[in-house]
Structures are given as structure tokens and as C-alpha cells.
Design a protein that fits this description.
The strands form four sheets. Strands 2-1-5-3-4 form a five-stranded mixed beta sheet, with helices on both faces. Strand 11 (245-251) and strand 12 (254-259) form a beta hairpin. The relative contact order is 0.10. The chain has helices at 30-36, 88-104, 113-119, 157-162, 201-205, 214-222, 273-277; strands at residues 12-17, 20-25, 60-63, 70-71, 82-84, 145-147, 172-175, 182-185, 211-213, 231-236, 245-251, 254-259. Helix content is 20%, strand content 19%.
């Protein structure tokens, strides 16, 4: 018989969310409480396996008594606080942030952004044709994954997952300043000359498609990538005895990429190079 430890129960906090009383476990963020209450607050840089970085500022809300808008992804819920998610001030801030992001980088492969642009009435083209854009060619310097800085919003999620939050490889960091800032390896060298171990955990957390499987990149270029035709099957990696869970994304009877469930207690969404990229033998029909 397996006994599951219950742990110490967390105290429930009571506060007001958009005029309605709600309860949330102590330590929860405002974003956690919003999701529990069924309120859709947009976010790009927040990751369920990472410490919030407060980089994108799309999830800002109003808190009574606060001089500025606060990021819902990192602000902890407090007893008695009054939170408003849909005020004109918060919506206007989200609108401007989305406009600035969409006018400077390619968000075409970012989930839900088209929906948010419409919801908040954001018009990125209002800055005119001369607005500065990150127009860089994709960097294809290895056979596993592709870097497209023209889609990068500098959310820091890839840096964090490669660093002290999960992988501890520290292969990448943010180089440069201002509009010239980029996520890069040391000396901005090719990935093959860097400390990268090709775990692909940076791809797992990238919210915009700036990092993608080489297989996905090639299929998108050929116009054959179609997520509506893909099935997902979760299995256990057979390379070693750790027991990592793999989710196989299959299209036309071919594995096109591999991810890992974020709620799995073994992996928390992370894999090694063999688990994430070593699936070719499965498709060997010879």
C-alpha cells in the first residue's frame, strides 16, 4: 500500500477579486487566484515551473492602495486586499505592451496573442512602417533546434531554466543592452561551440516559438506543420532508470517533437538530450 504524505495544510486567505470575495491558499499569487476563479488574465513570461521574472508586464492588475499596477504573476495574495483585473488602466497598459511587443518582434507563433490583440484593441501598426523590428535570420547551426531571435521577447525563461532554476548549465545569458539585447551563448558563438548540452529545456518554456525543434521549423517552412492533426501520447523514457515521462507529438504516424508533462514529479517538464531528441530509432521502419 502506497501512503501519500499530506504535508502541512496551507492557511486560506480571504480577499476581494473584482468585487467578489475569494479564498486562496497562503503563498498563492494573484494570478493563481485569478485562474482558480476562472478569470482569464493574459501572461507571456510566466511559467508554471519557474520563478516569476516580471518581464512581459502583460498580466498587470490594480490593487487598492498600490501606486502602480502590479504583476499578477509574482504579487502574492494577501488577506483583505482588493484586486481589480479589468479596469481601464490595466487594460490600457496591456494594450500598449502588446502593441510594443507585436511591433518589434514576430508573434505569429505565440499562442493566444492574436486573440489578445483583438480583445484589447491593440494596433501594433500604429507606430508606422519605420518602427524598429528585430529582423534576424533564424540561426540553424545544429540538427536539433533552431533559434529565431526575431520572435524573442526577452522573457528570460530560457535563461532561468538553463541556469540555477533547473539545468545548472548556464550556457546562455542576455548579452547587449537596450534594443540590441539578445539571448546568447558566450561570445555569441554557434551553439555547437558553446556549453549547451542540448537538453532542449529552453524550448519547453519558450512562449513565442523563438526556440523550436528543427523538425517543427522545417515543417513550418514547408507548410506541413498542423497541430490539429497531431496526437499526444505520454509514455516513459526507456533510456535509463530515472523514469522521466515523455509526451510524443505524432503527425502522419511520425514523431515530430517530444515534450514532458510539467506536473510530473520526476521531470517537472525537463528532459535530457536523449529523452527529448533521441526518438529517431522509433521511426526506423527497416
Amino acid at each position: 500500500m502506497t501512503v501519500t504524505p499530506l504535508g502541512i495544510p496551507r492557511r486560506l486567505l480571504e480577499f476581494t477579486l473584482d468585487g467578489e470575495p475569494v479564498r486562496a491558499p497562503e503563498g498563492s499569487t494573484i494570478l493563481d487566484a485569478c485562474r482558480a476563479a476562472g478569470k482569464d488574465v493574459p501572461t507571456l513570461c510566466e511559467g508554471d515551473t519557474l520563478t516569476p521574472k516580471n518581464a512581459c508586464r502583460v498580466c498587470v492588475v490594480e490593487v487598492e492602495g498600490s501606486r502602480t499596477l502590479v504583476p499578477a504573476c509574482s504579487r502574492k495574495a494577501e488577506a483583505g486586499m482588493e484586486v481589480r483585473t479589468g479596469t481601464e488602466r490595466a487594460r490600457h497598459s496591456r494594450k500598449v505592451v502588446l502593441e510594443l511587443l507585436a511591433s518589434s518582434v514576430d508573434l505569429s507563433t505565440t499562442p493566444r496573442v492574436a486573440e489578445w490583440l483583438k480583445e484589447y484593441g491593440a494596433k501594433p501598426d500604429r507606430f508606422g512602417p519605420d518602427a524598429a523590428r528585430v529582423n534576424e535570420e533564424p540561426r540553424v547551426d545544429n540538427g536539433l533546434y533552431v533559434r529565431e531571435y526575431g520572435k524573442c521577447i526577452l522573457c528570460y525563461k530560457c535563461v532561468d531554466v538553463c541556469g540555477d532554476q533547473w539545468q545548472n548549465t548556464f550556457a546562455i545569458s542576455v548579452a547587449g543592452r537596450g534594443f540590441g539585447a539578445r539571448v546568447a551563448v558566450e561570445h555569441d558563438a554557434p551553439l555547437t561551440d558553446s556549453a549547451c548540452v542540448y537538453c532542449g529545456n529552453c524550448i519547453e518554456v519558450c512562449p513565442t516559438g523563438a526556440l523550436s525543434f528543427k523538425s517543427e521549423f522545417d515543417m513550418r517552412g514547408a507548410g506541413t506543420w498542423d497541430e490539429s492533426r497531431q496526437t499526444r501520447t505520454t509514455t516513459v523514457c526507456a533510456y535509463c532508470g530515472v523514469g522521466c515521462n515523455l509526451t510524443l507529438h505524432v503527425q502522419d504516424n511520425e514523431i515530430v517533437k517530444v515534450t514532458s508533462p510539467h506536473d510530473n514529479p520526476v521531470t517537472h517538464g525537463n528532459l535530457c538530450i536523449k529523452g527529448r531528441f533521441g526518438y529517431q530509432h522509433v521511426q526506423n521502419r527497416d
